[in-house]
Amino acid sequence: MNLILFVAVIAVLLVLIALCEPLAERLRLPYTVLLALVGTLIGIGALLVTAGVGGELFAPAAAAILNLPIRSNVFMYLLLPTLLFQVALRLNVRRMLDDWVPIILMAIVAVIVATFVIGFALAPFTSLPLVACLMLGAIVATTDPSAVVSIFRNTSAPLRLSRIVEGESLLNDAAAIALYSFFLTFVMAGVPNPTLSDALVQFPVPILGGIAFGWIMGRASSSLMSWLDPFPRGQLSISVGLAYLTFVIGEQLVGVSGVVATVVAGLTINMLGPGRIGPGNWTYMREVWDSLAHWATSFIFVLAALLVPRLIADAELHDLFLILVVTVSAIVARALVLYGMLPLLSRFKLSPPVESPYRLAILWGGLRGAVTLALTLAVAESALVPAAVKHEVGIVATGFALVTLLVQGTTLRWLIGRLRLDRLSPLDQALSNQVIAVTLQNVREGVSRTTRRHELNSDVVRSEAKQFAERLSRSLERAEAADDTAESDRVTLGLVALGGRERDMILDAFRQQLLSDRLVEQMLSDVDRLIESTRIEGRNGYREAGRRSLNLGPRYTLAIRLHNRLGLQGLLTQLTAARFEILLNQRLILSDLHGYIDTKIRRIHGKHIADLLHEALKQREAEARKSLNGLRLQYPAYATEMERRFIRRTALRLEENEYHVFFGDGLIGREVYTKLLQTIEKARKQLAQRPRLDLAVEKAEFTRQFPLFQDMDDRQRQKLVRAFRTRYAEPGEVLVRRGDVERNVYFIASGAVEVSVGGQAYPLGRGEIFGELGLLTHRPRRGQITAITHCTMLLLDEPGFRKLLKRNEPLRQAVLETARQRGAVLEL
After folding, report:
1. Is the dihedral of CA 27, 31, 36, 42 positive or negative?
2. pTM for this entry
3. What parts of the sequence cross the membrane (predicted)?
4. pLDDT tens-digit profile of 505-543?
5. CA separation, residue 334 to residues 330, 401, 483 (Å)
6. Which of 94, 162, 216, 353 is the most buried (most CB within 10 A)?
């Protein structure tokens, strides 16, 4: 094909892609569906022109279109990696992990169900062997729900539902390709057929291997991007190279799923990027990837649609019947998942409840796209596949994809409207009215100040003020209609507004660089969960989500076990430092939200609702303060350093604002202004390096807190610190069981434990010790000791404790007194 003509055709397609976007909005069609329609029409037109219908004027253009090098590898290796990587880069990974069970089950089990339902439904009506029918089922099993996801995002559909559908779309491609590859070996001539045991072993390997390979590539690339932080274009280049190298190397050299590897690499960059790439560079990278993915998606649908007329040109009446069979069986298979599997997952609390209208929308929104057509092309291009299989698979798979795009795609928005999914719920409508009322009141005050300052014509001002007052009055009436709503619903409205304001304050703190890049995503994820939980469960959901954000979680449990059993403190140090920074910023943000209640929410919902919101907020504040104080007690030196750095960040922000004012007023020139900002940025980079939390160093601070150790000199304290071992415990963890023989004595540095003896229980707190008598007498314990809070304890074995008793007379006397009270005789 002539290179100049090829470039011209691509340029024309880019123009058509640009025009399709506003046209799709005007026609109220999904953008990708319109692209497929346009591509199909262009393909039909090119075939007609080459057949002599349009004369010789358009013959060169038609020939150029038909000669475009559209192969399966173009979709799989050129366009698909871009699409996969961008979606992975944009996902809210932490929130996606909340729903990993339904995502994995729908992405894998749904594909398997669809493959076998379609394959067995098709087999009685065709001469193809069963394995060829199953291969066809795998080809058409993968869905492209981009249309339904985009529509859900513009409606009041639950956010968790959109995340599940989006997560499914990322992973079901890999499952479908793996099944397709397995059944293809049965169809290809001269290729040995695998056994069932081979299949059971081989099927998970590409997926699990892709996860491992993608994670390694993502970790390595994130480190390289961190080193290139002053060069945003270099970081972008690394990310583009990562997407393609991961896909190609994974597929061709490592032998794993390139789809899974590319997705995992993108998710890894998503997780690590905010902490290793500057905020401006991170935003720049994601915006460029959005553009790349837009072009990739557009070309996928246009180029695939160009092939549709050629692939189904030889279709017969019987082929149309087979397309109908596949269409019906695909809908039935998807219905089995949506109406069978999802309710079961919801019953076991593994998936959000999905109401029937949403399930129907997802069912009808199971469009087939690029992967289906790419696999169809791969079959058509294979020299080892029999001609009859090529012909039948090409027509049926392409025809089915065309049906989903032309029938389901064009009617999806209409169905959404008929199901009333495009309307706000009563609660969201009340929230919308509240927002409008507050906004208009603020606008009125701002316009009033502007008119007074500029001395505008009084008649014009009065006329406009009258019209605006009427609009404001109507909005206040709608907002005050919330008084007819139950108190619980009005409290929910207020709490949702509070959550939204909290999210804005987190973003504002991030923009002002008061909040570390690496933690903003986690805090935003927590507040998104809080808003969603509040919408569903009201005040109880708000309270529970707030507590959940303070929970340490399974990673912290793992970190504690690694430290206690293996002496590995890296993960525990990292999580503890991050927890301190989050709690410090969260407490400050929560305290500022009280002003928002008084100035904004109270004006709409009244004093009573405002008081209830203050109460809910104070409860969250108290819980955050309690957790923060616990960390301060455990790590006083680190706490002091973190608070000092927070003050310095605030001072830098205020200093930068002053320089902006001086520059804006013309008091300093560009050169001076640039130099001052460079000084600010240098100081910020130094503060961005989180101080090292050394758990061993903190032991020295612990010993100073014990009254029994205050008279020790520095040399004695250093020896004691070296002898101490640190142990962390979670609430409910049993430290010593009844009948155990003590091997250590425990000094409680922070937290509290409960001693249960003879049916009675009493607590021990910070600064107290236990286990000393059992250690010295070697008698089995008569009671049990359990942690009732998060605890930090210092441990000494028997030789170390006896040495300490000889050097520390106050401790020796305290132990003897305890033994006397309990009737024990000690020789020290």
Report:
1. positive
2. 0.68
3. 6-24, 31-54, 74-93, 100-122, 128-149, 170-191, 203-221, 242-272, 292-313, 320-342, 362-381, 393-416
4. 887 877 776 776 667 777 887 888 888 788 778 888 888
5. 6, 15, 43
6. 162
